[in-house]
Amino acid sequence: DARAVAALGRFDVVLCSDVLYGHLEATAVKLAETAHALCDETHGAVFLSYFPREKLEADTPFFRRCDALFRDPVPRDVGGCARDDEDLWFFEYTPRSAGVT
After folding, report:
1. DSSP state of 57
2. CA 23/CA 69 separation, integer angstroms
3. Cα within 13 Å of Cα(91), Cβ side
4. Alpha-carbon gap, residue 90 to 78, rounded angstroms
């Protein structure tokens, strides 16, 4: 809900972990929009850890919306948190200029 997000304000760091599970498209899009709304547009960043539990295609709406709201993601090292056999991704997203949707 937009009022709840507005009441929280904006943050320098928004951490998203274990949030994608092949949601309905509308839910995935709202998740990306909420992360963007919470992120300070000037010097904020969203850090997303992602483990493709189901098919990556199921989470495509989230990543497509992130492409519109954020600059290209910067891959980050997970620092030994994942086992060698795990496909764990860690990205840093920074918001595009205001007015871009």
Report:
1. G
2. 19
3. 15
4. 6
Distance CA 46, CA 83 (A): 23
Confirm if 33 and 65 have CB atoms less than 8 A apart: yes
User: Do β-strands 13-17 and 45-50 pair in parallel, antiparallel, or remain unpaired?
Assistant: parallel
Which residue type sits at 40?
A: D
pLDDT in tens, the chain (101 residues): 889 999 999 999 999 988 888 778 999 999 999 999 999 999 999 999 988 877 778 899 999 999 999 999 999 887 766 556 567 888 999 999 765 55
> Is the CB of residue 87 less than 8 Å from the CB of residue 65?
no
